[in-house]
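Supplementary Methods. Inverse-folding protocol.

Structures were first reduced to a discrete structure-token string of length 194. This string, shown here, constituted the complete conditioning input.
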């Protein structure tokens, strides 16, 4: 699915670059492990990955950080906050380097979008695609949990295979955790004799 995301957002970096003379921007070269966006912080900038890779992690109350996505060259991070409550919904960390990021002020990008309908359409297409994929992944995980609850190993296997098909370590990790949970449940259930 990440391949599809790259197709959806393919024009976005090009469209942003056409506005660079009129918007505040700079090139960042953070080291691997550096946090470039913090969950809950004010979203004042958008990042376009030119080289390297970013890991996107979300932490729920009382929970551990969970990898939810990776962002590679030609993709953006932070654009969701442009349309929402202007705070970052996840923490973004440089996971592979050398990283080179184009930092664009969010307010300037929104101003450029006022005069560029193609830019608006690409931003909406990217956001829409990410929402559809998140909904699909959530449905697969919920279906997997239901299959675990009902002892439906066939459905669980199908859901895990779908999760593993997507290009992304986070979904593969989820499939592995579901399989481990299924194995633990099988070990704790008493054997039925027939």
């Amino acid at each position: 699915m990440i391949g599809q995301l790259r197709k959806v957002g393919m024009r976005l970096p090009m469209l942003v670059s056409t506005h660079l003379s009129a918007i505040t921007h700079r090139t960042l070269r953070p080291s691997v492990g550096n946090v470039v966006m913090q969950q809950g912080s004010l979203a004042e900038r958008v990042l376009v990955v030119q080289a390297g890779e970013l890991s996107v992690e979300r932490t729920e109350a009382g929970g551990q950080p969970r990898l939810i996505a990776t962002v590679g060259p030609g993709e953006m991070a932070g654009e969701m906050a442009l349309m929402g409550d202007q705070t970052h919904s996840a923490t973004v960390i440089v996971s592979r380097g050398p990283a080179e990021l184009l930092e664009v002020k969010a307010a300037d990008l929104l101003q450029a979008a006022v005069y560029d309908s193609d830019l608006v359409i690409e931003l909406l297409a990217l956001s829409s695609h990410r929402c559809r994929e998140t909904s699909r992944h959530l449905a697969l995980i919920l279906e997997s949990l239901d299959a675990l609850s009902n002892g439906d190993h066939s459905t669980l296997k199908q859901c895990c295979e779908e999760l593993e098909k997507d290009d992304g370590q986070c979904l593969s990790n989820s499939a592995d955790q579901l399989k481990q949970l299924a194995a633990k449940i099988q070990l704790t259930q008493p054997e039925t004799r027939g």
